[in-house]
Amino acid sequence: MVEHIHFYYTNDFHSYFSQWSRVASFMKGKKIKHRLKEESCWLIDIGDHLDRVHPITEASMGKANVQVLNDVGYDMVTFGNNEGITLSHDDFYHLYDDADFEVVCANLQNRAGDNPNWLNDYVQIQSIGGVRIGVIGLTVAFNDFYHLLHWHVSSPYEVLEKHLEILSEKVDVIVLLSHLGINWDRKIASRFPKIDVIIGGHTHHLFKEGEYVGNTLLTAAGKNCFYVGEVHFEWDHKQQKLVKKEAVATDITEYPKDLITEQSLFTLQKQSEDILNKEVVYLDESILVRWFKHTKIMQQLTDSALNWTKAEGAMLNAGLLLDDFPAGAVTYADVHRICPHPINLCVVSITGRNLMNVIQTTLKREFTELKLKGFGFRGEILGKMIFSNITFEKTRNTDGGFIISDVWIHGKPLEQNKTYQIATADSFTFGRLIPEIAQSETKVYYLPEFLRDVLSKTLMDNYGI
């Protein structure tokens, strides 16, 4: 007899709630279908389900995301960096207290006490026909952030070497829920052939059909749940082995919405508005925000970053603020709407010579007009760089750009070989946008406060009564 076993999964939803009722409709339909056929079916999420860019998530600190997963009937999840490092230690510790599903992640440890009760290294499930399946989870090790929040994430290799040998003796099939990214997934598949399927995420890659590395099947379904992933097994009970593995990603952009989920999201939206509708400051007149000009509010915010971190200088891009502040009561909802990014402040150590190169880079048109996607930035374009405690002379060159001639820190001439502590948005510490910052060997991140928390204080300090 051949038994059919099914997994349906989402990954990197990022609180894109306008798509969730389609996900709900699809998932509920699959559960009903397989129940009627008496086939085993599990619903799984691979992490970064929450994103504090959305007011529903911001107001509930992710608890609403757990609620909607409960409502659809999810069975297992692992978590990503948006769960683990954008919440305070306490909020993350209690995030899944009310979950009706299993939370699986083998490489997270609490450095401030016992692990949460909801945390499992792996779980063992069993199909209707008795096939034993082990599900293990892993998340990406952003320990520069996790350690500041009193968590530690171990190496995936270390954890898999610890658990796989034991798990393989207990189960017939091994599934890895991986919020590590495509490169890690491929390396793990090559190194640990006992894993039958790796369901991936984090790097937002999309496999419309699965990819094999050796005998391990890899799959992932992109970002924001425009696709839902499917994994299908065929187990031959006579041969006592898997005879077929299949992975596909299904486009659900035109799928009908689930009405009950739409009503639930409407209620959650109203609740979030009530929570966030608290006054931060009252403005007698509006505050203008301009992406390509120096504005008073961006200078005040950059000055606040300097004071918040006690750095020697600070720099923030004007595109971090998305809209003007209207006259009248400014609420937390307004601050969240205008500065929605899950971005923290960071102080980097940088030489005077490299700082001159950074300033030169930020004056270029291709920098200020860059439409950045990712690294926590949720805006449109980077915009003009604003500086605090850093001044410089610039002259226009023949191609319309600028050349830096002299730089001063706190009124003193910049020393080329001296190391300075400069505060900026942590988005510049990743990737290759500003190599001199990303490659700094010393970075100090300021958690758990986001940049919008600094913005709220800036408004209260400068415009409060």
UniProtKB/TrEMBL annotation:
Gene3D superfamilies documented for this protein: 3.60.21.10, 5'-Nucleotidase, C-terminal domain (3.90.780.10)
Keyword annotations: Hydrolase, Nucleotide-binding, Signal
One MF annotation (Gene Ontology) recorded for this entry: hydrolase activity
Source organism of the structure: Cerasibacillus terrae
PANTHER family the UniProt entry points to: 5'-NUCLEOTIDASE, 5'-NUCLEOTIDASE-RELATED
Record GO biological process: nucleotide catabolic process
InterPro entries: 5'-Nucleotdase_C, 5'-Nucleotdase_C_sf, 5_nucleotidase/apyrase, Calcineurin-like_PHP, Metallo-depent_PP-like, Pesterase_YunD
Name of the protein in question: Bifunctional metallophosphatase/5'-nucleotidase
Family: Belongs to the 5'-nucleotidase family.
Superkingdom of origin: Bacteria
Domain Calcineurin-like phosphoesterase: 7-205
Domain 5'-Nucleotidase C-terminal: 291-426
Any matching Pfam family: 5_nucleotid_C
Transmembrane segment boundaries: none
